[in-house]
Write a structure and sequence with these properties.
The complex is a heterodimer of chains A (255) and B (228). Chain A has one domain. Helix content of chain A is 87%, strand content 0%. The two termini of chain A are 33 Å apart. With 228 residues, chain B is an alpha/beta fold. In chain B, helix 3 crosses helix 4 and helix 3 runs parallel beside helix 5. Classes of the chains: A mainly alpha (255), B alpha/beta (228). At the A-B interface, helix 2 and helix 5 of A face helix 2 and helix 3 of B. Chain B: Belongs to the ABC transporter superfamily. Chain B: It holds the Pfam family ABC_tran. Chain B: InterPro entries: AAA+_ATPase, ABC_transporter-like_ATP-bd, ABC_transporter_ATP-binding, P-loop_NTPase.
Chain lengths: 255, 228
């Protein structure tokens, strides 16, 4: 892949990411069906890393994003006093676009960097070679549990991040525009907002898969020294950002 | 009878250096072969080629009669699973415990496998470290765990690259363990080492890798000197 440049290199990288993701999914599926106790233990280890630990940062971030959006909406309401369209649009854009993108960016930072670093460290420590030497598929072993944890994390992060953003948004609405919680929650937890939340979850799933694919494709490149691991992590982060923003723009434009 | 491991005219050039030059070698069941080489001469590449982790520049490597470069990845893994491998510097999976490393190698979680693992851990003095993560082990413990893992699947062929490096005080014990598990059970061994005495003690055939070629050594040259 290193010999390629420009478009062909990008296509090769996307192909490698997709191929690794599919192999990780099928390999992990096989391990779970076979009752592999090690796979279950690895998944149990991956859940805190990819699901619970990020919440400590993610929830305050979502609440802050909600506060920022709420301040903007409150200023708009102070000017036009058009509560129904403004609050309806705010709830929808918050849950359909802002929170998924925020959580997606976070996933990019944590998943792609963590994966590329882990694969790099495994390669340096000859752990990938060891798995091959033991007759095991390194993709299923090294990436499978992480993929399962990342896929499980997407709906949980979206749901909790959405709630934190809605609560954060309610504070400036109440303080600046005098919009009470019952009124705002009526919009934020309406049928339309639930639909927006589901769309947000679908988007986040796509973003998480992009972050996973980028992290695994970058991490799978040969590593010659520990310094390479840091460089790869930076590449994974920036490439993941680009991938997630491109997908977000495409989704918004087409759907 | 086809050889368990065969190098047929294998050459390998890396970074402008010819590491292997038309190497021919056949290891059949019960053969114990050592290859002596200085550091950087290409011993670890021989291991990688032997189990299909690297492709030769030219020539063919056959493991259990199958040409590794033509075999599908799953076939290569199945063939490797019939070998016991210890890599130079160790290759335990750091985030798994010693016992999990062994279970990963044996690929089974039944009681029989558990008993086999327990016995190997006891033989290699690792019974107290079974639940310890591999990355928390000392260098000597890692080496012993790596060797124990190499034997856990009852391999037909052992490929050991500097197996006692870093084992220090326990090297003699390890050597006796390895000898006990290879010689009476008729397993084939490819030993890659710089240690001439070790090669003479464990193996019947000893080669020296010089300028990419294998040169067979006189047995008398490799037998350890009794007076030293």
């Amino acid at each position: 892949m290193d010999a390629l440049k420009g478009g062909p290199k990008l296509i090769a990288a996307i192909g490698a990411g997709a191929w690794l993701t599919v192999r990780a999914a099928t390999g992990m599926g096989r391990r779970i069906i076979a009752g592999d106790a090690l796979a279950q233990r690895q998944l149990a280890d991956g859940l805190p890393l990819h699901v619970w630990r990020p919440l400590r940062t993610l929830l305050p971030l979502a609440a802050l994003a909600g506060i920022i959006a709420g301040i903007g909406a409150a200023r708009l309401l102070a000017l036009y006093n058009a509560q129904i369209p403004v609050l309806g649009a705010l709830a929808e854009i918050l849950l359909r676009d802002i929170v998924p993108l925020l959580v997606g960016l976070f996933a990019c930072g944590s998943v792609s960097v963590a994966l590329s670093s882990r694969l790099g460290a495994m390669a340096l420590n000859r752990e990938i070679d060891a798995l091959e030497a033991l007759g095991r598929d390194p993709v299923a072993h090294a990436l499978g549990p992480a993929l399962a944890a990342v896929l499980l994390s997407a709906p949980i992060h979206m749901l909790l991040g959405g709630i934190a953003a809605v609560i954060g948004c309610g504070v400036p609405l109440a303080l600046i525009a005098n919009v009470g919680w019952p009124l705002w929650s009526g919009f934020a937890f309406s049928h339309d907002a639930a639909g927006a939340m589901l769309t947000g979850m679908a988007k986040l799933l796509v973003y998480a898969l992009i972050a996973f694919g980028v992290g695994s494709a970058v991490g799978a490149k040969p590593v010659r020294s520990p310094a390479d691991i840091g460089r790869r992590a930076t590449t994974a982060f920036t490439a993941g950002l680009l991938g997630i923003f491109s997908a977000a723009a495409l989704w918004t434009a087409l759907l | 009878m086809s050889a368990l491991l065969a190098f047929e005219g294998v050459s390998l050039v890396l970074g402008g250096t010819r590491l292997l030059d038309q190497v021919d070698l056949a290891i059949e069941a019960s053969d114990r072969v050592a290859i002596l080489a200085d550091s950087g001469a290409g011993k670890s590449w021989l291991l990688r080629l032997a189990i299909g982790l690297a492709r030769p520049g030219s020539g063919t490597v056959r493991l259990m009669g199958t040409a590794m470069e033509d075999a599908a990845p799953d076939t290569r893994r199945l063939l490797r699973a019939r070998c016991g491998v210890a890599m130079q510097g160790g290759s335990l999976l750091g985030d798994l415990s010693v016992e999990e490393n062994m279970r990963l190698a044996i690929g089974s979680s039944d009681r029989r496998a558990g008993r086999r693992i327990d016995r190997l851990l006891l033989d290699y003095g690792l019974e107290q470290s079974a639940a310890t993560r591999a990355d928390a082990l000392s260098i000597g413990e890692r080496r012993r765990a790596e060797l124990a893992r190499a034997f856990v699947r009852d391999p037909e062929l052992l490929v050991l690259d500097e197996p006692f490096e870093g084992a220090f005080a326990r090297a003699d014990m390890l050597e006796a363990q390895v000898r006990r598990r290879i010689v009476p059970q008729g397993r084939a061994l490819l030993l890659l080492t710089q240690d001439r005495a070790l090669a003479g003690q464990l193996c019947e055939r000893v080669y020296r890798l010089e300028r990419g070629r294998l040169i067979q050594q006189d047995a008398a040259v490799t037998v350890p000197d009794a007076t030293s």
